[in-house]
Amino acid sequence: MQKKTEQQRTELKDLGEFGLIHRIQQQFTPKHPESILGIGDDAAVIDTGADTYTLMSTDMLVEGIHFDLSYVPLKHLGYKAVAVNVSDIAAMNGTPKQFTVSLGLSNRFPLEAIDELYAGIKHACDNYNIDLVGGDTTSTRTGLVISITAIGEVAKDQIVYRKGCKENELICVSGDLGGAYMGLQVLEREKQVFMANPDMQPELDGKDYIVRRQLKPEARTDMIYELRELGVVPTSMIDISDGLASELMHLCSQSEVGAILYEEHLPIAKVTYDTSVEFNIDPTTSVLNGGEDYELLFTIKQEDYDKIKQNAEIIEIGYVLPKDKGVVLKTKGEQIVPITAQGWKHF
Ligand code: ADP
Ligand code: MG
Question: What's the gap in Å between 189 CA and the centre of ligand 1?
């Protein structure tokens, strides 16, 4: 009998999430001319023959990986599952229109739990003016899985990709960063305290803002509207799901540019700053690598600066450099340090 040859085995963690996606992307080139853009941006872009492009994006939330039901209310989870998809449509400068919901459920969940989840989904439908148009329901052994696919549209001359920014353009962000991450730290701490002593009440006083940033993030569709009102079309854009550093690396690598951010310009709420210090986390690390804030990171032409400078929600954090200058941070101490993307390492 012949000995079986040893099969090659490559660990997914050696590729990482981005490496894996890149590998899949290389194997699938769209064959229809209507598939304007496939894998690689916040949403796929499809030309259906109308005046607008159709946008399509999908995101999945898995219990134990993306959420912990011991502190995440199902209603908030339903809302968040829609919001994170709407955020990807917004990141293309688009307007969300329809979505489907696919659920993996175990018998651990009673009807009342599903009602709560859908109450949150309904709230998101009203808030983002988007229609639930279908889905799928299946069983799982234990955990809850929610996968949402959203469709949106954008005028052809208004579409914004991750690729497209050029040297000297301004780098902007909508709102403040790091809050969702610090909210998660607080929730995790209170869970540990509760597990050690179930009589203890959670200590969330004064942390409402960051806890809400974690549990009920908002997609910045309002910013898309605002930019339209101001007559500004960003030259590149991405939503911040994994963290500012990681998303900036995506913009820079796809646009083949470098960038400089100014530490003193990085937007952070006081409670995020104070909680970072309380947890012995450098506040700048919370802002750069925190993730899940679902703010928009975008670039604009210098000449558009006058149009945005009055808007307190648009913060200018740096500018685009030539590629050979790299992606760097100028610290408060005037040092130049390279920015490295941490992102999520799922595997
Ligand atoms: P985002 O954080 O904006 O949701 P992702 O990093 O999840 O973006 O995805 C980046 C790109 O890779 C998107 O175009 C997405 O559709 C695509 N993608 C992610 N996972 C897969 C997969 N398993 N198969 C094919 N495409 C994928
Ligand atoms: Mg995205």
Answer: 31
pLDDT, one tens digit per residue, over 217-267 is 999 999 999 999 999 999 999 999 999 999 999 999 999 999 999 999 999
Fold of 170-338: Phosphoribosyl-aminoimidazole Synthetase; Chain A, domain 2 (3.90.650)
By the 8 A CB rule, do 118 and 55 touch? no
Question: Degrees (nearest 5) of the Cα angle 125, 130, 136?
Answer: 80
34-155 fold = 60s Ribosomal Protein L30; Chain: A; (3.30.1330)
Domain spans, the chain: 34-155, 170-338
Question: 15: Cβ below 6 Å to ligand 1?
Answer: no
CA angle 91, 324, 297 (to 5 degrees): 15
State mean pLDDT over 44-58: 96
Q: Which helix (H) or strand (E) holds 37?
A: strand 35-37
